Amino acid sequence: MYSAILKYITDFYESAIFVYCAGLFLFYILLAVLSLIAIRRSLWKNKIRGQQMLVASPLTPGISVIAPAYNEGVTIIANVRSLLALNYPRFEVVIVNDGSKDDTLQKLINEFELVEVNFAYRQQIPCQEVKRFFKSSNPAYSKLLVLDKVNGKSKADAVNAGINASSFDYFLNTDVDCILASDTLLKLIKPFMDDPERVIATGAPLRAANSCDVEAGVITRVRVPGALLPRFQEMEYIRSYLLGKMGWTFINAVPNVSGGLGLFDKDIVIKSGGYDPGSFGEDMDMVVRMCRYMCEQDLPYRIHYIPETLCWTEVPATYKVFFRQRVRWARGLAQIFGKHRKVLFNPKYKKLGLIIFPYNFFFELLAPLIEFAGIIYYIYIIVNHLINWDYAIILLVFIYTFSILITSLSMLWDQLIFRYYQSWKEVWQLCILSLAEPFIYHPIVLFSAIRGYFNQLIGKKHTWGNMQRQGFNQSSNLQKTT
Question: Where would one find the signal peptide in this protein (predicted)?
Fold first, then answer.
């Protein structure tokens, strides 16, 4: 009797795992096809309307570039100069000094000839107190506004302060240490102007700046990261943005716009309550709340992703920092489903409730738990000599081959369409590295997700540690919270 029940449970579990994997692979295939269509459509639209038309047009909307800064004294000057040099007719740069303990603010004051000014500040969304406002006495830096505020212990609080102080109807949320392409604003604003429906946010791929050549805040040559961990992350970013986000764009079901680079409709952000300083995944949480607001008001909307990389950021180079970052991301995902649980399978929220949340619930939130349970199960049946080796080997080989295929396809698409790397050798290096990803990189991601869920379950306090930056081919390092 016991053996019959055990066999039934074993057969049921194996069948369930097979169905789950098949469903996940079908989604990946569908996203890959939709991604290709979306990329071709985006490139075709860009050919029709050139960027110079936007530069010259008096109807081009203004944009506020908001960049929080905390202890960024080492590179703050070069980064702010890079933001001020963006190619766009109407924009301002809002730097939010979030209670830095180093010389970040003083360097800004000295370099850009800043003086304290009276400012008509209206706090529409909550944030810590803004103590002072600075503008430049030099007309060359008239686009720069610097806020000095009490530390809010999160980027979200600083962005909220920047939104409150911003002048224009759209704002770009970025990090002060990110390197942006000069035409970033021109490309991100296009969907807002072209789409007949109201666009509430646009995003674009991020890429690892590790090992890239940088001069005066500008990427002069894109290189594959030299170190192993950043190289894995480069591969993951390309796959996620090019195959994932672009596929979701095609059906207007983008689940998230990265906190490193996103252009937003300020009015909808304010009506949605702004960023949540208590969220571990404030970027996805913000997008979810914006979508909820639009659905609850029964307003049509769209979120766009464009396929071109416009932002480079230095990714974690040590396993300690990387693990801490991914634990926080996992906690953020779990936190979002706790806060917005009524959205799941709720037709009131349309694609958000019937497509985005179900997919993220089954294939993002539950995936690490199911995989971890599967590992425990396989260990159990191996120890008890219950494993069907033929079935197990076929399943594992299929999963391994499929993951390599999807990753390699992403790398090849990226190079064929955009040619960011100067040589195909670098692309093949990434493709070959995909052979090792399931054995080296993926277990770290899996364990960090499990740890994040556990920390969220027990309510463990998160420590916002420092991330030791290597610098962009420079000898100096900088500190940044992660």
Answer: none
CA-wise closest residue to 277 among 394, 150, 154, 100: 154
Q: Mind listing the pLDDT tens digit for each residue in 201-243?
A: 999 999 999 889 888 778 889 999 999 999 999 999 999 988 8
Strand 261-265, strand 466-468: pairing: unpaired
Tokens standing for residue 310? 């416009």
- What lies within 8 Å, CB to CB, of 328 at 6+ separation is 280, 281, 452, 462, 482
**Cβ burial, residue 274 (10 Å; 0-12/13-18/19+):** buried
Question: Which residue type is seen at 406?
Answer: I
Closest CA to 338 of 288, 298, 374, 372: 288
Q: What is the pLDDT of residues 447-465, one digit of tens each?
A: 999 999 999 999 887 655 5
Residue 357 contacts residue 343 (beta carbons within 8 Å) = yes
Which of 390, 387, 375 minimizes the C-alpha distance to 443?
A: 375
For residue 379, count CB atoms less than 10 angstroms from its CB and return exposed for 0-12, middle for 13-18, buried for 19 or more: exposed
Residue 48 phi/psi, 5° resolution? -70, -40
Smallest CA-to-CA distance from 481 within 12, 1, 69, 6 is with 69
Taking the C-alpha atoms of residue 116 and residue 104, their distance in angstroms, rounded to an integer, is 16
